[in-house]
What does this fold into?
Amino acid sequence: MNKPARKVLPDRRLAETRRVETPQGHTAFVTIGYDPASPIKPLEVFYSGGFRSGSDLEYHLHDLCVLISLLLQHGVAASFLSRSIARKTSALGGEEYASLAGWLVDAVSIPPSWTDEYVAAIGDDQNPSNSSPTQAKEKSE
It folds into this structure.
């Protein structure tokens, strides 16, 4: 049986840790690792903390990070994942993700803090980024 091609990452790579809020107001931290060849393209995500240690929720988030990372490393763009996740109408009438998987994909879809500098350095016509910010609240550390 043939395995799909997976982007193998080097031991050291560019990453950004973000403080993000869930639609329910909880704060958590995720670390997003980027492709060394295209430093604004996410290829992995790690849950770094924020929910009770040892809880089912924490284990779910760890597993979601593994699954999302595998999809990214197999060539599925973060923007595609973001468009594919279920959403619901919030109490205030806006749109939000229906699950923590959507919240996590949304956090990965937000470009890193160095995007503007990178795009300026390579020129806008060579910008390999295919992800765009979504509606999630994100606060950089």
User: Anything to note?
Assistant: The beta strands are 15-21, 27-35, 38-49, 87-89, 95-97, 138-140. The first strand starts at residue 15 and ends at 21. Residues 128-141 have pLDDT under 50 and may be disordered.
